[in-house]
Amino acid sequence: MFTHQRELRIEWGDCDPADIVFYPRYFAFFDASTGALFEAMGCSLRDVRRQANQVGFPMVDTRSQFYKPSKYGDIVLIESQISEVGHASFGIQHRLFNDGKLAVECSEKRVWAGLNEQGELKAQAIPDSVRKRMLA
Predict the structure, then answer these.
(1) Which run of H or E residues covers position 115?
(2) Which of 26, 44, 11 is nearest to 95 (CA)?
(3) Residue 127 DSSP code
(4) Residue 98 contacts residue 70 (beta carbons within 8 Å)
(5) For residue 43, what is the DSSP state?
(6) Keyword annotations for this protein (predicted)?
(7) Which of 104, 110, 80 is nearest to 24 (CA)?
């Protein structure tokens, strides 16, 4: 399944008074990493939204485990991988490494979504062109 890596420098605003990353910031890192993963697949959110009535891929579940803190100034590596592909949903696994050691794991489940005729947000089948990229 498709995998992407990106480096990130921990900024002062990411940290709490103990000088470690405030845990909600990790979810922002992983959300941005999902966007970077799709960009690397050649399928940006802008491209998705250009398709008829497509909104994007909202998250319906996320879970994390924290093993090692990261601090201001640390350079971390986030590895993101498509972990499963269903009809209208897919999973992503993120692993954040600090100094070569696993610091945080996160799993996401997202749904391919668009607007129906009534303008309501509904799950839709993942387009075949995107599915092929996810499975590459």
Answers:
(1) strand 113-115
(2) 26
(3) P
(4) yes
(5) -
(6) Hydrolase
(7) 104
Do residues 109 and 89 make contact, with C-beta atoms less than 8 angstroms apart?
yes
Q: Please state the pTM of the whole predicted model.
A: 0.92
Q: Find all residues with CB under 8 Å of 15, minimum gap 6, and list them.
A: 21, 22, 71, 72
User: In order of start, what are the domains of the chain with their CATH numbers?
Assistant: 3-135 (3.10.129.10)
Tell me, rounded to whole angstroms, the distance of Cα 89 from its chain centroid: 13
Alpha carbons within 13 angstroms on the beta-carbon side of residue 53 total 14
CB atoms within 10 A of CB 20: 17
Amino acid residing at 42:
G
| pLDDT, tens digit, 9 for 90 and up, residues 109-126 | 999 998 888 989 999 999
